[in-house]
Amino acid sequence: MISILLTASDDAKALARLLTALVPAAAEGLVREVAVIGAAGASAALADDAGADLFDDFGAATARVRGPWIAGLPLTATLAPDWMEILGVHLARDPPTPAHLVARPAGFSFARGPEGWLAPKGLEASAGLVEQDLQRLARRSGRRLRVLDRR
């Protein structure tokens, strides 16, 4: 099961879209919880209404989430239709390794889109890593999981 970390902004519409996209994964048991970091105003109310846990910073969020995996998704992410299956295959691998969550190319476009990361829980605590470190680690891990779509 995955704990999802989202860094909020004042874009409540983007937060609502992403939280809605995560509902099927929660119903299937893939997503255990969602932690929203830095939400205020309408975004905080929306996250609270959706049942997400609210945190002021990354360290507090990673210390409290309970899933054996944590994933950071950009608020602008659009999930690919088969994202749950792709993550399920990766989670079943042994040994567990971080992954870089990337978008599928749109046509012939090679422009970078939103990116996320996936890491086994405890990796951040044992190494004192912050979110940017986990992003770099996931990029270098060699596993690129195409679970996001371009808008």
* Radius of gyration, CA atoms, in whole angstroms: 14 Å
The helix/strand series, from N terminus to C terminus, equals EHEHEHEEHEEHHE
- What is the C-level CATH assignment? Alpha Beta
The order of strands across the largest sheet is: 3-2-1-4-7-6-8-5
* Topology, number of strands: 8
Major sheet attributes: 8 strands, mixed
Whole-number count of domains: 1
Low-confidence stretches: none
**Gap from first CA to last CA:** 27 Å
Shape: globular
Describe the protein's architecture and organization.
Helix 1 runs parallel beside helix 2. This protein has one domain: Spore Coat Polysaccharide Biosynthesis Protein SpsA, Chain A (Alpha-Beta Complex), CATH 3.90.550. The mean pLDDT is 87. The chain has helices at 12-28, 41-49, 58-64, 83-91, 123-127, 131-140; strands spanning 2-7, 31-37, 53-55, 69-73, 78-79, 99-103, 116-120, 144-149. Strands 3-2-1-4-7-6-8-5 form an eight-stranded mixed β-sheet, sandwiched between helices. 38% of the residues lie in helices and 26% in strands. The protein has six helices and eight strands, in the order βαβαβαββαββααβ. With 151 residues, it is of the alpha/beta class. The longest helix has 17 residues, at 12-28. Helix 2 links the parallel strand 2 and strand 3 (53-55).
Strand and helix map with partners:
Layout: E1 2-7, H1 12-28, E2 31-37, H2 41-49, E3 53-55, H3 58-64, E4 69-73, E5 78-79, H4 83-91, E6 99-103, E7 116-120, H5 123-127, H6 131-140, E8 144-149
Parallel strand pairs: 1-2, 1-4, 2-3, 6-8
Antiparallel strand pairs: 4-7, 5-8, 6-7
